[in-house]
Amino acid sequence: MIVQLAWKNIWRNKKRSLILVLATCFGVWGGIFTSGFSVGMWEGTIESAIDRELSHIQIHHPKFRDEKLVSQFIPDIDNVRKNLLNEDLISAYSERIIVEGIISSPVSTRGVKIFGIEPSQEKKVTSIYRKVIDGSYFTEDKENQIVIGSKLAEQLKVKLNSKVVLFFQSIDNNLVASAFRVAGIFKTESSIYDASVVFVSREELQSLLGAKDIVHEVAIRVRDVNMIDVVKNRLRANITNVLVEDWKEIAPEYALTRGILYVELNIFMGVILFALLFGISNTMMMSVFERIREFGMLMAIGMKRSKLFGLIISESVMLLFTGGAIGAFLGWITVLVLSKTGVDLSMVTEGLSAYSIPVVLYPKVPLHMYISLFLMLLATAIIASISPAVKAIRLKPVEAMRTF
């Protein structure tokens, strides 16, 4: 009965209630859209980093990530390969040789990270081959090929088929210099990556280093992202003397920033609802003042003060939840549509690439954010109605009935 009475009461003044419902609706709608856009931007950045370089899991020599020495290759690589082939949750893996070196053109010289890869393996793990904008991602019948980023090509002032020279240290600590021809130029979401990484054939780089069958890094793709921890723990248990890490451990800044982002978005929604709190509190207080005589009569005929308190709380909750539910539905529809079509930000490509953010964003709002939203709506409604409810239950029936 309290619920039915509360619903009828909030529509006594339709104009006032409708204004508050619309304010709540647009506030929640805008909050959800902004949250979806922010989450989509950051999740897209993480997915791009995984596709571009991180993969799901990586294996290294225990000291390689700290010191990055050429001699710190993975011990007993055959045992590693055996375990990877026996793990059915792994979809693909790529073996890499990684060397810090210098690339030189007739115009300029830059420091780069040189990746020696097997193109057929790397295609199954990263998306670089799909980012090639000029030339090709290696050709089988050619030697001394190199694939570089568009930013690096711009800095070196080279183009397709231009000759560049790589300088790096061999296993014996001797300086090695070798000439390569640009076979392809790629462009990813990250201009920093494009300016600092080059790819050559693993077999050719291995020969130049003066070593046989060495691997500094194994990048692994898992069939189901929810099974990354399971695969990581299995590999750690089965392979000794190596460092096995997932992408969150390799790039902890991504996972940390994502956690902070969700906190910030909840605070953002809290600020919107805090602003609405004053509006609904004012509306409920006006409603109480308009119905003082009615409240006095209800208490005079036996209505308990606790039920009167609950009636006003119910009115506030219904009013806010009506607008909140409509706003949440509109926000969900908006995010759903944009998650299919994407939001094209190509007009600010250069600015986004400096932060490794994809040009096309796909907004998304996790379920837990909707749950948090409705919990905050409930808290806002209760807090906003406490003062009007206390005012109502403190009325004296006889005095209240004399009020006009």
Write up this protein.
- 55% of the residues lie in helices and 19% in strands.
- The longest helix has 41 residues, at 14-54.
- The mean pLDDT is 90.
- With 404 residues, it is α+β, with helices and mostly antiparallel strands.
- The relative contact order is 0.18.
- The two termini are 26 Å apart.
- The chain has a six-stranded mixed beta barrel with strand order 2-3-8-5-7-6. Strands 11-12 form a two-stranded antiparallel ribbon.
- It has helices at 2-10, 14-54, 64-67, 77-86, 119-122, 150-156, 191-194, 202-209, 228-238, 247-250, 252-290, 292-300, 305-341, 349-353, 367-393, 397-401, and strands at 57-60, 90-104, 109-117, 132-135, 145-149, 163-169, 175-186, 197-201, 217-222, 243-246, 343-344, 360-361.
Total E-strand runs = 12
Strand content: 15-25%
Q: What ranges have pLDDT less than 50 throughout 5 or more consecutive residues?
A: none
Major beta sheet summary: 6 strands, mixed, barrel
In round numbers, the mean pLDDT is 90
Helix content: 55-70%
- Termini separation comes to 26 Å
Structural class: alpha+beta
List the secondary-structure elements in sequence, H or E: HHEHHEEHEEHEEHEHEHEHHHHEHEHH
With strands numbered from the N-terminus, the spatial order across the biggest sheet is 2-3-8-5-7-6
Quick tags:
alpha+beta
Summarize the topology:
Elements: H1 2-10, H2 14-54, E1 57-60, H3 64-67, H4 77-86, E2 90-104, E3 109-117, H5 119-122, E4 132-135, E5 145-149, H6 150-156, E6 163-169, E7 175-186, H7 191-194, E8 197-201, H8 202-209, E9 217-222, H9 228-238, E10 243-246, H10 247-250, H11 252-290, H12 292-300, H13 305-341, E11 343-344, H14 349-353, E12 360-361, H15 367-393, H16 397-401
Helix pairs in contact: 1-13, 2-11, 2-13, 11-13, 11-15, 13-15
